[in-house]
Structures are given as structure tokens and as C-alpha cells.
Design goal:
six-stranded mixed β-sheet, Arc Repressor Mutant, subunit A, 9 helices, Rossmann fold, disordered N terminus, 6 strands, 13% strand, alpha/beta
């Protein structure tokens, strides 16, 4: 495995999995020239032994390699790492291959020789997608953590509040005093980090989608 040290203005991390050392070297030099951190591997097995960094990542994957080919590897790997976009490169590509790769979620399928800029454009697109997916995942985890911090009663009140019920109505249904409901409502809004009923409703919708 070879590694390019990131520059101060590095824009992301690229993983290259290709059994051809000349290709790995050429891509390492290309990515280094534009400030991208690059990690290269000669096989998927070598790559899987590497601990993934906690950062936006894009993979450049050769189709034909010894052992498991790139297309089979992509389908298996993407099931658990859909946040990592894949760019395929190959010297022996055809339309069925490219269709299979794109259906499995690849963002580009380039046939060697390809233009450096075409690959870089695909990499930047992949890194942007990776960053967005990571941010979305982090936002969902944060939302779930806020909801988990609510008591059973607060969740019950929240469900009624987002359905448009007033404190007086909620109090009657739960057989509580109206002041108790208002205190509970205030606490759940604080724990959910919002002062907006509209935003609380959107949060509830997201949580419902996650449950389903």
C-alpha cells in the first residue's frame, strides 16, 4: 500500500483498488497534484484489512482483478458502506458491465485510457456525495439521540402536540392538569432543541419514516 500525505488544503480522501502498480502510481501522482489524500491497494482483500478513516471517501475500483472482481465486490461492499461512492475504471469495459455497475450505485464507469479531468470530476462528485451522506447520517443519529432522551410521557405529549392538539385537550386525554402538560411540553421542546412547532412536526415525520 502506498500513501500520499494530505496537503493543508486537501479536499478529501480517495481509495484506489487496482492490481496494476503502474496505474496505482499514476493515480497517486494525479491525486497528489490536486491536493487529494490517496490510499492505494493491490486487491480488495488488502483494502478490507485497512481501517476506514472517519472522513469523506471516494473509491476508484478496477473491474478485473485477481480473485473477486470489482463488480462483485461493489455489490457486497455497498450494502454496508453506501456512504462511499465508487468510480469504476477498466481496460475491458462493455455496456452490460457499465449498466450493472451503475445500477449497483457507481457514479461513473471510465474505460482506460481516460482523461484525467474526467476522473477528477467523478472523484469530486463522489466526495461531495460522501460528505452529504455523512452529514445526513450524523443528523439522523443526533435526532434519534434527542428523541431517546425524552421520557415516555414526553413522547406521548409530543405525539399529540404534532397532531395539533392543544394543552387543554392533551390534559383531558391524559388525565393531567393543564399546567403539567405545559411543563412537559416545554421540557420536550428543550430536549428536542427547538422552539418551533413546525420544526417539531418535521422531526416527528422523520422519526416516523425511520421507524417504518
Amino acid at each position: 500500500m502506498s500513501r500520499v500525505q494530505p496537503s493543508h488544503d486537501s479536499e478529501g480522501t480517495v481509495v484506489v483498488v487496482d492490481d496494476d502498480p503502474s496505474v496505482r502510481k499514476a493515480l497517486t501522482n494525479l491525486f497528489s497534484s490536486v491536493g487529494l489524500t490517496a490510499h492505494t491497494f493491490a486487491s480488495t482483500r488488502e483494502f478490507l484489512a485497512w481501517p476506514l478513516p472517519d472522513a469523506p471517501l471516494c473509491m476508484v475500483l478496477d473491474v478485473r482483478m485477481p480473485g473477486k472482481n470489482g463488480l462483485d465486490f461493489q455489490q457486497e461492499f455497498s450494502r454496508s458502506h453506501e456512504e462511499i461512492p465508487v468510480v469504476f475504471i477498466t481496460a475491458h469495459g462493455d455496456i452490460p458491465m457499465s449498466v450493472r455497475a451503475m445500477k449497483a450505485g457507481a457514479i461513473e464507469f471510465l474505460t482506460k485510457p481516460f482523461k484525467d479531468q474526467d476522473l477528477l470530476d467523478a472523484i469530486y462528485t463522489g466526495l461531495t456525495k460522501s460528505r452529504t451522506r455523512r452529514e445526513e447520517t450524523a443528523a439522523i443519529a443526533d435526532l434519534c439521540a434527542r428523541y431517546d432522551s425524552l421520557s415516555a410521557r414526553e413522547r406521548e405529549v409530543m405525539d399529540m402536540v404534532v397532531k395539533g392538539q392543544l394543552s387543554k385537550q392533551i390534559a383531558a386525554k391524559l388525565r393531567l392538569s393543564e399546567i403539567t402538560v405545559k411543563v412537559c411540553r416545554s421540557q420536550l421542546m428543550r430536549k428536542m432543541h427547538t422552539t418551533s412547532l413546525l420544526e417539531l412536526g418535521r422531526m416527528a415525520e422523520k422519526l416516523e419514516r425511520l421507524r417504518n
